[in-house]
Design goal:
Helices cover about 5% and strands about 50% of the residues. It has a single domain, classed as Beta Barrel (Lipocalin).
């Protein structure tokens, strides 16, 4: 039996650092997600991961949907740049196993993101 965990909205989910950068996801209760691929530290990047501040930047914004423990995300960068699709499974409230596929260049990856609580509001 698969347990249905809830996404957390009071922080961010962070991927492993590879080649000096990592992916950071911020989920909102209204099914909005902001994704950043960055070398910046959390204290530097988190203030910019807010919907009301989102503009055409290096971060991506999109929508997610849940189906049981599975989560599907499509996040698009600045207009004209492209979209990355993510398929994942919430294996605990603090961990999502993700497979990504870039519609920009075809790159694919698998990794796990871990929740970092930051006291954010959803």
């Amino acid at each position: 039996m698969t347990h249905l965990y809830m996404l957390r909205f009071d922080g961010v989910y962070c991927g492993p650092t590879e080649n000096g950068v990592r992916k950071i996801f911020r989920f909102y209760p209204d099914e909005t997600v902001i994704e950043a691929t960055t070398a910046a530290g959390l204290s530097e990047i988190v203030p910019w991961l807010r919907k009301e501040l989102f503009t055409e930047s290096q971060h991506s914004i999109g929508r997610y949907r849940r189906c049981g423990p599975d989560i599907f995300v499509a996040a698009t960068n600045a207009p004209g740049y492209g979209t990355i699709e993510y398929t994942g499974m919430l294996v605990s409230p603090d961990e999502i196993r993700i497979e990504s596929r870039s519609l920009i260049n075809g790159n694919q990856a698998r990794y796990t993101v871990h929740f970092v609580p930051l006291g954010l509001e959803g």
